[in-house]
Amino acid sequence: MEASSCSKAEPFALQVLGDSMQPEFMDEVVIVVDPEGVIRDGCYVVALDLKDEYIFRQYREHDGKHYLVPLNDLYDTEEFKGPSHVKGVVVQQAGKRRKERKFY
């Protein structure tokens, strides 16, 4: 396996696939994820779910439990193991034009 030129702490870009995070994040939009971002209730995260699969959702905490919440009501909210399983916090949604960029 070749060594990557990126540090584990450097932000990275991902393309959103599907409609589970609509209307805020449309299918195929690019998001920037910061592995060292501050995790707080209501932020958007990339995390490992209970099936150890990466998932993009909104992080919510309630009564000491941690949840991954889709914005599209057609998808289910999932409980998960908590902040230690968050791989990064979404800090930006890229747009085709500079004015379409959105920071979180």
TrEMBL record:
SUPFAM superfamilies: LexA/Signal peptidase
Entry-linked InterPro entries: LexA-like, LexA/Signal_pep-like_sf, Peptidase_S24_S26A/B/C
Name this protein carries in UniProt: Peptidase S24/S26A/S26B/S26C domain-containing protein
Pfam families per UniProt: Peptidase_S24
Residue ranges of domain Peptidase S24/S26A/S26B/S26C in the record: 8-90
